[in-house]
Amino acid sequence: MTERTRPNEETRQAERAEADTKASPDRMPTPEEEQLADSLESDPEVAKNYEEMAERGANQKGEGRIP
Questions:
Q1: Which helix (H) or strand (E) holds 13?
Q2: For residues 2 and 14, which has the higher predicted lDDT (pLDDT)?
Q3: Model-level pTM?
Q4: How far apart, in whole angstroms, are the C-alpha atoms of residue 18 and residue 21?
Q5: Residue 18 falls within a domain, yes or no?
Q6: Assigned domain for 46 exists
């Protein structure tokens, strides 16, 4: 590709409109889905692993460190 192109005003407007679009679900959960989600319990082993990984990330040194 040797030729460079510049976006025209129509493209810029479309990009602005897309950038302003907020994320949203395609539909809200049904009452049955909400009740089911509320009745679920998390696995304590998963919570322990999550906390361990968060601690490791907080203490990471060098490349890949999250500031």
A1: helix 9-19
A2: 14
A3: 0.40
A4: 5
A5: no
A6: yes
Within a domain: 65: no
Stretch (H or E) spanning 51: helix 44-58
Residue 52 tokens read as 């361990």
Structural domain boundaries enclosing 38: 29-58
Which pLDDT tens digit goes with each residue over 9-55?
A: 999 999 999 999 888 999 999 999 999 999 999 899 999 999 998 88
Handedness of CA 7, 12, 14, 20 (dihedral sign): positive
Torsion over CA: 33, 48, 51, 61 (sign): negative
H/E run at residue 16: helix 9-19
Per the domain annotation, does 48 fall within a domain?
A: yes
According to the model, what pLDDT value does residue 64 have? 63
